[in-house]
Amino acid sequence: MKKNSAEKVAYGFIVALLALLCLSVVYPFLYMLAISLNDGADAARGGVYIWPRSFTTINYEIVLGNEVIRHSYLITIGRTVLGTVLGLFVTLLAAYGLSYRKLPLRSTILAYVLITMLFNGGLVPLYIQLNNLHLLDTFWVFIFPSLFSAWNMFVMLKFIQGIPEALIESAELDGAGPLRTLLQIVMPLSKPMLAALGLFTAVGHWNDWFSGAFYVTSQSLIPVQTFLQQLLSASDLSTVLGSNSNQEALARSAEMQNITLMSIKMAVVMVSALPILCVYPFLQKYFVKGVLIGSVKG
Amino acid sequence: MYAKFYKHRWQYLMILPSVVLLFLFSYMPMAGILVAFRDFQIGTSIWSAPWVGLDNFAFLHEPQFWTVVRNTLYISVLKFIFGFPAPILLALLINEVTHSTFKRFVQSVSYLPHFFSWIVVAYMLQSFLTLDGGLVNQLIGKAGGDPVFFLGSTEWFRPIVVGSGLWKETGWNTILYLAAITTIDPQLYEAAKVEGAGKMAQIRHITIPGILPTISIVLILSIPSLINVGMDQIYPLMNSANMEVADVLDTYVLRSGLQQGYFGMSTAVGLLSSVIGLVLVLGTNQLSRKINGEGLW
Fold it and tell me: Which UniProt keywords apply (chain A) (predicted)?
């Protein structure tokens, strides 16, 4: 391709602009990483930008040694795995059942689902209902209310209807029941769609801090993001570490003097973000596809 | 008749869990809207609490409520004005990149922030903007200026919300536009080049008209969310110092309902915003029918 000099300048400008944009995304993580790996008191003096000046892993030792944080990790992992697997399955069952165009009452059921996308009771009536069902302050409050997703159901429905009907019919002629057809024909063909929707559901569970903050009160049920949210406005270290949950680290009181709230906070947030950073490269091909599948209609 | 249903018993069985879940978590809360018209306390039943008519709507006379409405509109309109054109612009820029490795790199990096929670973004903002040791204030100090209390000021709250919103979602929102650009027939560009059209002319006369349908769909779809500013983003950034401009409908409902226990009143506020949301969605659908000849459903 031939370019005149004005175009070359413009191209260089665009590349520089986009590079700057990437930097604005990457740099905050580098900065937080550097602060979290730096001696807290030293970092507070300023001047740490990309590389830790006084390297230490003490912040991470404290964070990973903290029982509250470790427990919140278990809660988050548990709800993410269970919520994603169960949620996808329940939603897929409904989408597959509704993909039978001749199903009596089909359009009534579809309307029943659609209405919930247009109107909802709001936060307080939902809260009252969760209370009536005795779901508040239990682990299940993270799972049940979000198990069925109307949006995902319509995406799945659309996708399943794109599978050649002859394939499904022939399976049924061969004597496969609907459940077997679903498991052996529809599900294998839906892998890319399930991967994409599963990814979005999992990220939603991983990042949800709201239900942990308002639907549970026991400290033992708090997910990582809710822990982070409570820590965000904390003003002293004891809020973070609890009174004596951290005997081992506290025993090293000489080192403790150099720990600041900020350096601990940065370590906690890095620990919570790291799993997403790690799986991100592998999932990339799925989510672009997922957005496009989801946007076919509308 | 019965035989027809029996024949599809497995399908109904598969749909059943979802129907039950929707009943429990969507339809029952819709019935719970009655709380807006009753004097309800937690522990009693929503069916037996005494009726109070429109007493719970007394907030309509409170100036504080209108401040909240104004804040909500202010933030959502600002987010729209900056947030709507940004991904189109970014997609046009990314599309101009001919170096494919760099192009892929830019895309991957710009999608990334979408996958982090607003809590993580709030930490990021705190690490840069906080008074004690935040990077920006350190730099301001070095330059001889006075530190600025960004996170606790009423003037900085809106720029921070709009800016962090752009930072987090612009890249992600380019996906649709980039996909739309790839469907444009390359022959159009060839023909334009033969006719002597420069890069800018090609963008104006081929690329933009080519993605116009996508632009109009995204525009239409974003109308209903105008009332929904995103509690997820606002709540972590809100504090007593910026409350005056930060309090929006969602946080108002949350505070008065779950935190202070005014269930009737905050249900009434929620009902009002649900109804406005519904009107916006239905109106949008009509609009879409008129423009695209097809509704959203």
Answer: Cell membrane, Membrane, Transmembrane, Transmembrane helix, Transport
**For the CA atoms of A288, A289, A293, A298, what is the dihedral angle to 10 degrees?**
20
Rounded to the nearest 5 percent, the helix, strand and coil shares of chain A are 75, 0, 25
Q: State the amino acid at position A64 in one-letter form.
A: L
Tokens (6 digits) for A173: 């002629």
Cβ-contact A264, A63 below 8 angstroms: yes
Whole-angstrom distance, CA of residue B74 vs CA of residue B60: 19
Gap between the Cα atoms of B30 and A137, Å rounded: 22
> What Cα–Cα distance (Å) separates residue B160 from each residue in A125, A220, B113, B167?
32, 33, 16, 10
- Amino acid in the structure at residue B294: E
Indicate left, alpha or beta for B99 from its phi (over 0: left) and psi (-120 to 50: alpha). beta
Q: Mean per-residue pLDDT for B81-104?
A: 94
Per CB-CB distance under 8 Å, the chain B contacts of A21 are 90, 106, 109-110
Within 8 A of B124 by CB-CB distance, chain A residues are 28, 32, 269
Nearest CA in chain A to B114: A203
Mean pLDDT of chain B: 90
The nearest CA of chain B is from the CA of A184 a distance in Å of: 16
Output the six-digit token pair for A157: 């429905």
pLDDT at res. A293: 75
Burial B59-82 (b: 16+ CB within 10 A, else e): beeeeebeebbebbeebbebbbee
For residue B56 the two structure tokens come to: 């719970």
Nearest to B115 among A18, A94, A203 (CB): A203
Whole-number pLDDT of residue A253:
53
- Across the interface, do B29 and A128 touch by the CB < 8 Å criterion? yes
Cα-flanking dihedrals φ and ψ of residue B15, to 5°?
A: -80, -25
Model pLDDT for residues A236-285, shown as the tens digit of each residue: 776 666 654 455 555 555 556 678 888 889 999 999 998 888 888 888 87
